[in-house]
Automatic annotation (TrEMBL):
GO molecular function: GTP binding; GTPase activity; metal ion binding
Positions that bind Mg(2+): 30, 47
Protein name: ADP-ribosylation factor-like protein 15
Taxonomic superkingdom: Eukaryota
InterPro entries: ARL15, P-loop_NTPase, Small_GTPase_ARF/SAR
PROSITE patterns reported for this sequence: ARF (PS51417)
Keywords attached to this entry: GTP-binding, Magnesium, Metal-binding, Nucleotide-binding
Organism per entry: Alca torda
Gene3D superfamilies: P-loop containing nucleotide triphosphate hydrolases
Annotated binding of GTP, by residue: 23-30, 69, 126-129
Gene: Arl15
Length: 139
C-alpha cells in the first residue's frame, strides 16, 4: 500500500519463460538449478520424474522443468516438452566415453524433436572443475 500511495506504484511484472532442463543422470542439472536459486547444493539426490523451479532474475523469471536423466525416464522426456520456450542441456564433461556418446544421442534427438527444434538451446558442459573434464572443443 505504501509503495502504491507514495511511489510510482507496484513494480511492473517480470516476464516469465518456460524452459526444460535435460541431461543424463549425474550431469548436474539439480545442482545448477539449486545454485541459480541460491539454495544449498549439499545432500542433492538424483531427480526421479521431474521437478520445477522458478529461477528469478532481475528482469525475468525462468520456470525451469528439470527432467530426470535415468535411462528409464528419458523415454518420457518428450511428454514434458510442450509449452517450452527454450532448452538447457546439461552435459557431464568428465563422464565416460559411453556416457558421452549416450548424451550426444539424446542431445541430437532433442534437437530434432518437433517441439524443440526451433527453440534456443543452451548446452552446458558441466564439471569443468574435475581432473577428467574434457574441453569444450573435445566435447
Amino acid at each position: 500500500c505504501f509503495r502504491a500511495l507514495c511511489c510510482k506504484g507496484p513494480p511492473p511484472p517480470r516476464p516469465e519463460y518456460d524452459l526444460v532442463c535435460i541431461g543424463l543422470t549425474g550431469s548436474g542439472k539439480t545442482s545448477l538449478l539449486s545454485k541459480l536459486c541460491s539454495e544449498s547444493t549439499e545432500n542433492i539426490v538424483s531427480t526421479t520424474g521431474f521437478s520445477i523451479k522458478a529461477v528469478p532474475f532481475q528482469n525475468a523469471i525462468l520456470n525451469v522443468k528439470e527432467l530426470g536423466g535415468a535411462d528409464n525416464i528419458r523415454k518420457y522426456w518428450s511428454r514434458y516438452y510442450q509449452g517450452s520456450q527454450g532448452v538447457i542441456f546439461v552435459l557431464d564433461s568428465a563422464s565416460s566415453e559411453d556416457d558421452l556418446e549416450t548424451a550426444r544421442n539424446e542431445l541430437h534427438s532433442a534437437l530434432q524433436h518437433p517441439q524443440l527444434c526451433t527453440l534456443p538451446f543452451l548446452i552446458l558442459a558441466n564439471h569443468q572443475d574435475k581432473p577428467a573434464a574434457r574441453s569444450v572443443q573435445e566435447v
